[in-house]
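User: Hey, my collaborator sent me this sequence without any context and asked if I could get a structure. I don't really work with proteins. Can you help?
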Amino acid sequence: MGSRPIKFGTDGWRGRIADEYTFEAVRRCSHGFAVYLKEEEGPDQSIVIGNDKRFASDEFASTAAEVMAGHGFKVLLLKGATPTPTISYTAVEQQAAGAINITASHNPPGDNGFKVRDRNGGAIAPEGLAIIEANIPPTEENIPRIALEAGLESGQIRYHDPKPAYVKQIESLVDLKPIRNAGLKVLVDPMWGNGAGWFTELLTGGTTTVSEIHDERNPIFPEMTRPEPIPPNIDAGLRESLARGADVLLITDGDADRIGLGDEHGQFVDQLRVYGLLAYYMLEVRGERGPIVKTLSTTSMLEKLGEKYDVPVIQTGVGFKYVAPKMLEVDALIGGEESGGYAFRGHVPERDGILAGLYLLDMIVQLDRKPSELVELLFETVGAHYYDRIDTPLNPEKRQEYLASIELANPDEIAGLKVTGIVTQDGYKFNLEDGGWLLVRFSGTEPIVRVYCETTSEERVDPILQAGLKLVGIK
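Assistant: No problem. I've predicted the 3D structure and written it out in structure-token form, which is a compact way to encode the shape of the chain:
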């Protein structure tokens, strides 16, 4: 009798530890990925394997290493919790065939995950994920393995320190000296995750001071329901930022590939505004040009910036499995999504919360403006935009009922705004006459329906969201 099937969602596979997420399941996933890589890249390749700070993540990483070594891969096992972007960059720097990352990113404490990356350090496209899934066996019987100690002794598995090469890469992308000497008071909330210590180490040596909270390993993630850099998980960090009089709060999620931003008043700067700021920074402050890649769930401010600076804006489905391949295809200047993940040209086509945080600090320094003033500057350029989303847990048995409800929806107006178009690229997006939108999307990794909106009037946000829930049939 086989085990339950493993399905890859938006960004790999995630499951509840000790239920579906087991050592046996990790071995099966590793086998499927090994078969895929040998077909795509050929034999005698190396692979990078890293992990986050969740329960038993290091042991799950070792389990994956044993299987990959059994398939003949030379395994670079990263010792200690490592940010996702660092793992991705290591795959490129070491010319590996790809990478495995044991992390559930922003999921609740009871989950863990299995992310896969290609030799470019980017997410694998849906077609590749489907092949990996097809290669996952129903049981672990006959999966080749080399025990960790034996692999270390033979050299088939070796521990690798990714930090020196990654830090050198970061220093080539952003001049840290002006930030170190700007006299900023920076508070960092790594959300008990892999981002702990990085900003402190990178910015030490000048008048800028960096302090951290939630910087130890604690897999139950106290003071938050999950390590996701959005309210209410960031509320404790915002309160501490205000109490300490910080100029800026930087928040990284559990595996440090996403960034959240708090301003000097202890107010959250939502992730759509952050994407607008980063795009403005690349175009105006750095003077760079190139395509912008965005998922359909993120800000329409990007289209306005694209028009102003004469650069194309390309929309994809939700997830970096769509963004990363498109960034490589068009040599994009920046790519990003609503979750707070942003990737940049000259680096890897992977979200990098550390680099994004440094770019935001550089923007503060170069323009000599506080975070709230940067938002005002952005709005002066593209107009004010307001955003929010509601995540609603779903009974899996009612998923088809909700899907049918939204599929049949064809409203002429939403919250008093005329619907100008409907996009069903990856979810159900209703474009509105003010340039805003409503999006209904069923999560690919959790039993959740997400209703998002962006609009040009703050008063319209809640009515639009409530209208979205009604279209699904929830209210």
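In plain terms: The longest strand covers residues 111-118. You can pass these tokens on to your collaborator as they are.
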